[in-house]
């Protein structure tokens, strides 16, 4: 059984949501998010940089959320929620998966990290720069969604799961509404029954 080491509101939600979309069994292992625990040798053995999430599947342990999503899809997805490997659509799919974390999520993450690490004396210019990068990334996704329900078009894919978690973080940390096409996209994402089940599982309210 897949084990997802997770703290509510963090990136492990991507894997939980994907498992709900696929109907893949999993177990959530709650993680103490305190800096002290994440710096402990016990946690560093699972995640060498002291972050969450971690996922294990038998002998395999992983510590990067987008890689976990791709692994779960490839192993348990039976071809669902991603275009055929090697196709043009697969290239676009990979682009949005990586963009969600490496470009968009990074700018948002820097806001969170800066506010936490420099809470007594945050540099407003640094935060403003990261907010501006986050807005630029949000606008790029919004533009790409023009005339589409999902980022690849009519088919929902794991790229929407990757982006959905990033939008969740945008709403939490930017303190402003999602721009343009992102607001209706967010409504479509959160209306999915798998999203709702993932939220219930994350908060410990799953049936
Ligand atoms: N690229 C990594 C980022 C992991 C990450 O930044 N996790 C956040 C929570 S969502 C965290 O542990 N933050 C605490 C810290 O950076 O000290 C992934 O996608 O797994």
Provide a quick synopsis of the model.
58% of the residues lie in helices and 8% in strands. The protein is built from 9 helices and 4 strands; from the N terminus they run E-H-E-H-H-E-E-H-H-H-H-H-H. Strand 1 (2-6), helix 1 (13-22) and strand 2 (26-30) form a beta-alpha-beta unit.
Descriptive key words:
4 strands, 2 domains, 207 residues, binds glutathione, Glutaredoxin, globular, alpha+beta, four-stranded mixed β-sheet, single chain, Glutathione S-transferase Yfyf (Class Pi), Chain A, domain 2, 58% helix
Structure, explained:
The longest helix has 30 residues, at 88-117. This protein has helices at residues 13-22, 35-38, 41-46, 65-76, 88-117, 124-144, 158-174, 182-191, 193-202, and strands spanning 2-6, 26-30, 54-57, 60-62. The chain starts with a strand and ends in a 5-residue tail after the last helix. The chain has a four-stranded mixed beta sheet, covered by helices on one side. The protein has two domains: 2-80 and 195-202, Glutaredoxin, CATH 3.40.30; 88-193, Glutathione S-transferase Yfyf (Class Pi), Chain A, domain 2, CATH 1.20.1050. Helix 1 runs parallel beside helix 4 (65-76), helix 1 runs antiparallel to helix 7 and helix 5 packs parallel to helix 7. The protein is an alpha+beta fold and 207 residues long. The radius of gyration is 17 Å and the shape is globular. Helices cover 58% and strands 8% of the residues.
């Amino acid at each position: 059984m897949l084990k997802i080491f997770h703290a509510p509101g963090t990136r492990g939600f991507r894997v939980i949501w994907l498992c709900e979309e696929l109907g893949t069994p999993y177990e959530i292992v709650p993680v103490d998010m305190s800096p002290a625990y994440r710096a402990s040798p016990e946690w560093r053995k699972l995640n060498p940089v002291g972050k969450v999430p971690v996922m294990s599947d038998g002998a395999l342990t992983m510590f990067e959320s987008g890689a976990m999503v791709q692994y779960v899809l490839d192993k348990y997805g039976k071809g669902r929620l991603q275009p055929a490997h090697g196709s043009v659509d697969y290239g676009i799919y990979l682009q949005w998966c990586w963009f969600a974390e490496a470009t968009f999520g990074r700018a948002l993450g820097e806001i969170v990290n800066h506010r936490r690490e420099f809470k007594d004396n945050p540099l407003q210019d640094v935060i403003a720069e990261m907010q501006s990068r986050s807005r630029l990334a949000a606008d790029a996704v919004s533009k790409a969604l023009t005339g589409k329900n999902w980022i690849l078009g009519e088919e929902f894919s794991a790229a929407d799961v990757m982006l959905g978690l990033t939008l969740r973080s945008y709403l939490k940390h930017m303190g402003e509404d999602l721009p343009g096409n992102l607001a209706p996209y967010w409504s479509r994402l959160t209306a999915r029954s798998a999203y709702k089940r993932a939220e219930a599982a994350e908060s410990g309210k799953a049936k």
